[in-house]
Amino acid sequence: MPVQQNRQIVIVIAEKNPLLQSSLVKLFDCDDRFKVATVVNDGERFLETADSVPFDVGIIGWEMPNIDGRGVLQSLRGRVDAPRLIVYTGSPNPDVPRQAMTLGAAGFCSKREPPEQLLDTIIAVASGRMVFPFIDVSSLASDPLAGLTPRERELLAALAGGLTNQQMASQLDISLNTVKFHLKNLYDKLGVGNRAQAVAFYLKGRESR
Fold it and tell me: For 162-167, which contacts have Cβ atoms below 8 Å and span 24 or more sequence positions?
């Protein structure tokens, strides 16, 4: 529900960088429109807080330990009492805003923007609006492969090349669990259930280009 204009907006912050944590707390302490309920350093603790502390707006990173921004959004999606969430990240991936919107975030703000942009985004989100940079939804809808991260594209090409999960882990110098994590996200984005369907999707996409 939108926050009434005459009361403070209660915020919970999930940010892995201690220096940025301190900077954000100082930023909000200097503005009586906001009240910081707590600050955590990963998505797992943020979800624990969401279960125990009432707040209006959550400011979450995209790349966080234990549970990342995607995981937080997936966990809270559909919850009637869920706080409105803003993804606040320095990720260079231009597709993060679209992914965040698809997963139910209420807003997106880049860390490259001035602090005032974050404050304006929180005010807008707390009032019930959605705040995102321009997203060319039509082009993404016509080409689902455009929504993949560079790592997911690598893995998809490796799948098409017939590599096993272990071979992909060795080739890309990442853990087997990380490969499985990326493949799950890859399948979710493409709307497929297994590697054979993903490869078929990949080959079809190449033929249409």
Answer: none
Sign of the torsion formed by the C-alpha atoms of 116, 118, 123 and 128: positive
One domain for residues 35 and 101: yes
Query: Is 35 in the same domain as 89?
Result: yes
Nearest to 86 by CA among 42, 118, 50, 45: 118
What token pair was written down for 3? Answer: 């926050």
Question: What end-to-end distance do the CA atoms of the chain give, in Å?
Answer: 44
Q: Look at residues 135, 131, 114 and name the one whose alpha carbon lies nearest to residue 123.
A: 131
CA 21 from centre of chain: 18
Q: Tens of pLDDT along 14-31? A: 999 999 999 999 999 999
Per-residue pLDDT reduced to its tens digit, 109-157: 999 999 999 999 999 999 999 999 875 555 555 566 766 778 888 899 8
